[in-house]
Design a protein that fits this description.
By secondary structure, this protein is mainly α. It has nine helices and no strands.
Length: 181
Amino acid sequence: MTKSVIKTFNETEAAIEMTFAKNAAKVYAPFFKAVKDREIAFEMFKGEKGATEAKLQYDIEHGWRNSNKDYLVKGGLSAISQAKFFADYSVKELQDVSGATLGTAYKNVSIAKNASNPKRGKVTNAKPAGKPAAEDAKPTDIKEMAKQIVKTLGAKDAEKLSLAIYDLVVAADSDKVAANG
């Protein structure tokens, strides 16, 4: 009895997981094309006066939003963003994506993509060996640091910075004198 229950469960889960792939040609590819068309239209509005209103009118006319500015697409703007991600996929590529919905398909592809191309190394709480904490760090070559500041800020702003630093040093010294007074 349990074996048949597990078999049914596994088959159902597998069928659900392939819902996105099964509907790739009939549902998702046309939706992604519509999203791409929307993006192309929005690009034409860029930089024009009244672009926001023109985009809203486009969305209302094409069924993306209603006159209350509510998105009519299930999932709203998130679904549209996820569809943009898949907009250049072929039907064959879409049929290779697993997931029950657009959201799970997007998540699955994103996870796979990030796993093969991480944006950063492994995250740990350990401090790197040999590096001093930021509060303990002091520049070792003041002259070189000053050259870099002048190069980065320019002569005028570097001069303003040096005057501001001087004022802070003088104020700190006078605070010390007053405290020891």
